[in-house]
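Hi Y.,

Following your request, here is the sequence exactly as I used it, all 92 residues.
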Amino acid sequence: MKNCLPSYVNIMNNRPITFISDDAEDLTPLTPAMFLHEICEIGVSDFNQLDSFVLNGRLVYLQKLKQTLQERFRLDSYNKITNTFKRISQSK
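Below is the corresponding structure, written out as tokens. Let me know if you'd prefer a different format.
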């Protein structure tokens, strides 16, 4: 019963509740599942609302982040190399 119920619910929620046309260019028929799922907006924000100050601030932030990550990577790499050489020299 537990295996059949989710399948049944899925079938019922995906059945069309509007007329299904034979024309391929018609709109997609409505289903109950369309009303149950949250609508996600897809697109970009209005470019007219973005000003150069916001974009420049974002660019500065990304540059600082890149620099911080590069420094961290260099330090990690340096520490790993020095630790490897220390282990090699201690084992001799």
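The chain has two domains: 4-36, 45-91.

Thanks again,
Q.
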